[in-house]
Structure formats: C-alpha cells, structure tokens
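Box S1 | Example of a co-folding query
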Amino acid sequence: MIYQRVENIFIVRLDVGEEILSSLTELCSQEKITAGTISGIGAANYADIGLYEVAKRKYHGTILEEEMEIASLNGNISRKDGKVYLHLHAAFANKQGQIFGGHLRSARISATAEIYIHTVPAKIERVFDEETTGLNLIQFDPTN
Ligand code: ZN
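Box S1 (continued) | Returned holo structure for zinc ion
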C-alpha cells in the first residue's frame, strides 16, 4: 500500500496480494481518521461478501474466488470503542460481466486498487443496536 495526502483526501494504491479492509484500517488508524467516505475501483481474485438478514439477525456470506474487476467499492469510516470501524460495500464483475455484490468482509487484490478516502473532521461512533436491528449503528456526538 502506498498513499498520498492532498488536503482532506488520501489517494491510496493497493498492490497484489493486499487485503482491502486490513490495509485501509491500518491507514485510518495510522492517520487518526475518525470519519470519512471511501470509494474505489480495482481488481481482485478473492472476496467475501454478503447480506445481513435483519429479521433473522443472520449474516449470509458468499465467497468469490476468480479474476474480477472491483466495479465499485463504497463505504464509510467511523469508530467503535475507539477503534477504526469500516463499513464497506462492493460490486465485483467476472469475465462475463456478471456482478456479485454486497457487504464486504474481505477482498484480496489481484492487480491494483485505486481508492480515495475523503476525511471529515467529525467523530462518528458506532453503538450496538440490540433492540431493532442487531447492528452497530452510527451515532453522532452532540459536542461536534
Ligand atoms: Zn453493510
């Protein structure tokens, strides 16, 4: 991973074999990013994506293991219990142009990934919502 900062934007390049979530978590932690958006494209040969079924509070995962374009990578940065928390969704296109997508748990780069991170000077915390969704929802700090 290499990256360059231009004002409130980090331009990131990921290389062969690197994993998206762990790389970006490391960057956000190193650069003390507490809130922001992530968008990117690239190529991957492994991805773990899925869908959270709210009614059953169950995550359905799918493993994709072939040469794919990362047609879209989108998400945001927040914190949970003080630690970097990334929420990413992605769409992967195979040789036939078929798209598979969902909540991203892991993806390994096969060629490169070009990712922009727009930072926001805010503190966005996640709090577990036991009552309605069973998800870690974003919460706003009334002091900023
Ligand atoms: Zn999600």
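The helical segments are 20-30. The longest strand covers residues 99-119.
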